[in-house]
Specification:
5-stranded antiparallel sheet; alpha+beta; Alpha-Beta Plaits; molybdenum cofactor biosynthesis
Length: 185
């Protein structure tokens, strides 16, 4: 945003606008986001044993996360509609914390990045886990949803310097390569 002497009328009045990206060039863009759902022992065990009344929690959350990535521009008002070329959702279990860690990988060839799509995928997957397990435990919570890395675009590549929550020994993953990201046909 410009300094106060060059602000437009709408900026001075708190107006909003969708950024014009038409001068950008198409490039490969990737993003990796992560988050965590802390479940408590009963809900955690129910997911691990696939004993949740509503069905297979992680498969449903995976589908919901992919769908969430595809719907990002409908959920976030000023987010551009992006042609998504690949979305991958992974889950890992943390037995000690009774938690499920979620990681989303997004990829596109386009004018703008896919960071918001990765973050939305993680958020929707996490909320789906919550929804499917809320009858088992009410103290479930979602935490630490954040961007881990992104590639492409004018700003180039970026990788978080903070260690992943509760996994300090793991390195921040590289965004998916063209070969590792599935294509959406």
């Amino acid at each position: 945003m410009a300094d106060s002497s060059t602000l437009t009328r709408s900026e001075l009045q708190g107006g909003v606008r969708m950024v014009d990206v038409s001068n950008q060039t198409d490039s490969v863009r990737t993003a990796v986001a992560a988050g965590r759902v802390v479940l408590g022992p009963e809900a955690y065990t129910a997911i691990r044993e696939k004993n949740v009344r509503k069905g297979d929690v992680l498969t449903t959350a995976q589908i919901a996360g992919i769908q969430g990535a595809k719907q990002t521009s409908h959920l976030i008002p000023l987010c551009h509609d992006v042609q998504i070329d690949g979305v991958e959702i992974e889950f890992t279990f943390d037995e000690e914390a009774h938690a499920v860690d979620i990681r989303a990988f997004t990829k596109s060839i386009g004018l703008t990045g896919v960071e918001m799509e990765a973050l939305t995928a993680v958020s929707i997957a996490a909320l789906t886990i919550y929804d499917m397990c809320k009858s088992i435990a009410r103290d479930i919570y979602v935490e630490e949803v954040r961007l881990l890395a992104k590639t492409g675009g004018q700003s180039g590549n970026w990788k978080s310097e903070r260690p992943e929550p509760r996994q300090e020994s793991k390195s921040t993953p590289e965004p998916p390569t063209e070969a590792s990201t599935p294509s959406v046909n």
